[in-house]
Queue: 2 jobs
Job 1
Amino acid sequence: MTRYTELSIIEINKLLKNKEIKPIDLVLETFEKIESSNINAFITLNKEEAINKAIELENKEVDNIMFGIPIAIKDNIITKNLKTTCASRMLEDFIPIYDATVINKIKEKNMIIIGKTNMDEFAMGSTGETSYFGATLNPWDSTVVPGGSSSGSAASVSSGLSIVALGSDTGGSIRQPSSFCGVVGMKPTYSRVSRYGLVAFASSLDQIGPISRTVMENALLLNVISGYDENDLTSSKKEVIDYTRLINKGIKGLKIAVPNYYMADTINSEVRNSVRKVIDILKDEGCTVENIDIDYLDYAIPLYQVIALAEASSNLARFDGIRFGYVSSNFTNVEELYKNTRSEGFGNEVKRRLMIGSYVLSGDNAHKYYEKALLLRREMANALKKVFEKYDLIIGPTNTDVAYPFGTKIDDALKSFYDDLLTIPVNMAGLPAMSMPVGFKSNLPIGLHIIGNYFKEDVMYQLGHFIENKLKLHLKPGGEK
Amino acid sequence: MKLNEKQVMHVADLARLKIEEKEIQKYQNQLNDILTEIDKIFNAKISTDEILISPIEQINCYNEDIEKGMLSREEIMKNVKNTNGDYIIVPRVVND
Amino acid sequence: MLVPTIGVEVHVELKSNTKVFSSSLNAFDNEPNKYVSVIDLGYPGTLPKLNKEVINMALSAAIALNCKINKVMHFDRKNYFYPDLPKGYQITQNKTPIGYDGYLEIEINGKKKKIGIERIQIEEDTCKSIHVEGKTLLNANRAGVPLIEVVSKPVIETGEEAALYLEKLREILLYLGISDVKIEEGSMRCDANISLKEHDSPEFGTKIEIKNIGSISHVKTSIEYEEKRQKELLLKGEILKEETRRFDEKTLTTVLMRTKETGNDYRYFPEPDIPYVVLSEEWISEIKNNMPILADELKEKYRKLGINENNIKTIISNISLCKFFETVVDKTNPISAANILTSEVLGYLNKNYIKISDMKLNQDNFIKLIEYINIGKISSKQAKDIIPVLIEKELSIDQVISELKIEQISDENILLEIINKIIDLNPNAVNDFKDGKYRAVKFLMGQIMKETKGQASPQILNKLLTEELSKR
């Protein structure tokens, strides 16, 4: 049997246009795969709706490249009438009454939503293990974590359960699981994609982005979801470009920086070797690649802990058992309603982070910690911006290592943050960054981190596509390397 | 900055979380691990006096004073567990 | 000697069409949960919008209250848990209030005094709560309604000053047209802070807050009561604790609500969901240039026109009346217009519960009415019959006059006949007149008016009667 969903989007589009296949073929194949998969990538499936949508599309003209393409959505993106849990007991039975802006955009292009993917609870974690619905397994090795927090989105694309997926990235939550699962994940420039309908973790850091099998398909999905939205005051009014426009253009002359911090001893040597191999290829191709120092990068984790957790403590205050979500059955007054609901509804990682967030804003700490952090954030952003005065791109590894066994970090409050060591600075500055597979350590994928200047996703895709073509990795879990 | 047990209970209270007696120690250790990490920001040399609230540089974003879509009563109450159909109900918050 | 330090905080609802951070209607309705969007409910994933009109309104208030303007402003989150606060935080302005360091001027015992204003900030209102047996019912119509909070400096010295400050503030906001400022309907809410200290002490005493006082006169009463209560306790040597009290309107005393054991921990931080608002010079001057004439300026104008203080006060205190008056004042005799408007017109409206916006009396009829009275075409007494008809019916004044058949008798021959008839019937009055008693004329005028059913033209009658009496 032909696996249509394993063809490229461009090929699928041709078949759909020529009426050689129908959207329903893609949908049925997708659910057949999902139902025989055991990686726990989905929290909620949208099978009936997806089938109805596919049948409805049979009478419509194939008017765009994403028409009829199945897509998986991270479960912290609000979908009207489709359960949205944030992988938390708090929202176990939450049926939203509106659609996120990105969902409207996906529906406008007649893409087909197949389900809501598993994740770390409220996007807090980097292994997928904090999900109330159990961890997602890494398609490459079921004993190691898929990364997080967009664990289900990355794993579902990696294992072919969905052609593309949406994730969200606050400190690395798209890039880190993409790296661990061997797929392409983009965190766009902050403000490029509307956050309206993304359940906020840290408002000034969060960004929705595409996860895909290839660089080209990543760009195609970014084309769909980008743009100004009057419902998100922080969304950019800058015109959206075609993100595929530089793909296949030569990369000769690109100036690329490699931060020394990203190639230090703290990074696994096999990971560094993979990156070095890429650097050699780029040099051969006529790119300038230089090692540089960037100030303040080493403050990423403590800075993130202050800013992300403070914002989170405020953003998650709305889960109080009154208007939506879980309600404890054990209360006699409002204070008990709050405390029991929140204590029973949130998992440990979330509780820990909410406490830290409350603490750093409490009393004099608002000045001592928070204001200091906002100044440091300015310094870090300036340091990164400065790099782009001279260079087009920054590259390095996405993570310090490849995926590690389940349980390694679950009880260590601190180590879970260390996975984001290299990814956080980008969120602090609001820059775009992506991860793409560039090699393996034993059988586990290694991710290359490509960081671009503001709104220069097209250049990142240009480079990524070139590398992808050069390496021609076999990226099917369980297949040949 | 190290938190003592009382302070742990206080931040739990601020976040409206209930901590069982037997969990205090665990949370105290974990919070203090994180706070030790956070204290590293005090080593950073800061030369700017400009804070960064959000990475965007856009200013003056607003909407016009025009009504756009409100919810039906049914939609409002859809996820409310305690309602009489007209109001959202909570335990009485004043005693007088 | 113990002296009080008083500060007043006022929350005022702005009457924009839609809410401040969402596009739901900003309207009052008896039906609960009617003007509500996912944003007002704090639904997961929602983000605030920002209503430009609210910024304009708050800016006009800041300008009218002589404030300095924070030209680069952002919003802040004030974090606390309460059932009426859907998001668990209120969007407000902590660090960069739109206006700061302003003042308004009150007049006390004939002297002008400036009351400093510390800050004006934009923020959102909460759900309305109704407390019933064992339950609190939440209505989200009010959630997200725009408020400005106006905080006075702690420079108010008496309850009376506080009341004058509030009256003045209310008047300014009313004339700006940005709020209904009705305390009884909750569109203006007042809290007062009072502390007592030795007059020569540099340090303030313990601050006691009285929340949500139901009227301006109660602000005065509650402050005076609180001052006395605290004084007595302090003189007994008691140590006061910071607390929040409410004013009991039945006993006219303040009652403890809660003590503030530890300061509130609101965990303020800048709101990342709303970009900076930069108020350019052009923006500020546009608001300035389009500001309506405020009450003080109108008072000055009316004084210059010779209108008496009582009438000025009546007109200014009723903004709809004042707006009507403004449409006629430059086209007629302002003094007569003020007199008729504040007595006959307002009297009839009040007696019959008619709103100015509902009355049929238009400015053309009103101007003619004043003219007819002044030239003696109709008497004041006749005016009293005409005005109700003009208020109730859509008729021109000339139609009303002919309908009521109250054209005046100005024909001298007819009047002379009646005058002489009355004089003949009252010889005593004639004697009184000869003795130089003016009341005789008044008496005879009254008799003639009775005879003519009030239709005699008073001016002509007066002239003819005096002439006729002199002939006797």
Note: Residues 314 and 358 of chain A are 8 Å apart (CA to CA).
Job 2
Amino acid sequence: MHVHFLDPYRPRPSLIHALDPRVKLALALAFILAVALTPIAAWPVYVLLAALLLSVVLLSELGVGHVLKRSALALPFVLAAIPILVTAPGATLWEATLAGLSLRLTDAGLARFGSIVLKSWLSVQMAIVLAASTTFPQLLLAMRALRVPRLLVAIFGLMWRYLFVLVDEALRLLRARAARSAAPTRPIAGARPGGSVAWRARVAGGMAGNLLIRSFDRGERIYAAMAARGYDGEIRAFPMPPIPAGQRLALIGGLVLLALLVGLGHLL
Amino acid sequence: MDTGPFVQIEHLSFSYGNGHQALRDVSLHIHRGEKVALVGPNGAGKSTLMLHLNGILRPTTGVVRIGGLPVEEKTLGRVRAWVGLVFQDPDDQLFSPTVFDDVAFGPIYQGLPEREVRARVAAALAHVHMAEYAPRVSHHLSVGEKKRIAIATVLAMEPELLALDEPTAGLDPRARRGLITLLCSLPQTMLISTHDLRMVAELLPRTVVMDGGRIVADRPTAEVLADAAFLEAHGLEL
């Protein structure tokens, strides 16, 4: 019994999948940075950025639907931007009084809100394409190559590895519980199977506690096994081969394009 | 009570979600009171087959009947009361804070009154010679002790069939001997998946051999164990 649904990677024979992970990571981060640096309400630039994103999605052969579906993940974060609608100073579009509190929807507030929603949505989609087209080990290697602190990369790596072990463990506990969740073999007057809600909550609490203790124990054992093989706080890996010349050009081209888009946004 | 085979598996095939086909056209009948060994190399489909006995996994095609009832959503409660499944890793089986809570889980879930739950727990723990362990925290027990308690957790439900997945794996000789003695003393119908062929020879008169998701032999244990060439062909040794 294993979990597969957690892994966002989707193998496809696409150009994007074949790109060097360092190039992909750098370009994806640059895209997100460019989106963040584009000024508020630079709508034409947003359209250009979205077009760029769409072409990457199409090239990756992941399917526009798949990426859009996953991007719904960003929706809850949009809630945090809602107060901007009524707090930004500007010309009033609509006014309402709610429990003695007067709310003024302003044009500036609306523009800011729309920009933030669009920007976060574009960024999330690029991150989704990156995660779906690059395996996690490749991403880790790319992070190291781009000088992300090694300890951080090691923590990401171990977290990824043992997240699955932990979820598997939780699934096995649930399976064991299901196996013993039976009906009475002969009818019992006035009793219903399933136990009381309080008892079931206690069982679930016990399972959660068990999982926590086991994770600690497993952590200890893993550390011991790593230390036994000479672990000194740093995971070493072979150096990666140089980035092919063509991909270097793609990287530079992509960075220049993004810089131009941000510049355009500030000129508008 | 019906008089047909207690376990009736007909043309069972099963594929996991990732496309791996674990069982191919498996048919197996087990009558009440039979003690059957399920042997075969790792990955042969033994555990997958066991998980079909109480509906944790459902057939892709084919039918599993327990006590005459097809295993499906609305019979799960009754089937799980009849089939006591003991997992290979006792840490999976034991999920409650104390030994008592774990053994009591099945009976409480069935809705038995408290007095009967306590009586069942006491009886089940006494059967596996672990009566004084009731208040202990299962996390700190040895593997052998955990295995016994895992068996007690299903004995407390008074099942008709005990399905045990590698009960002697990871035990030292004394704990293994103790466990075999315990299994000998239990009257239930048994299906034991194992690599321990010496235990099979001692305990289980009938042997079913699986390989590559199929049943490749279903014969008296003595015959199977005497056929050295057959055992070797399926990665087994005495």
Note: The CA atoms of residues 36 and 67 of chain A lie 20 Å apart.
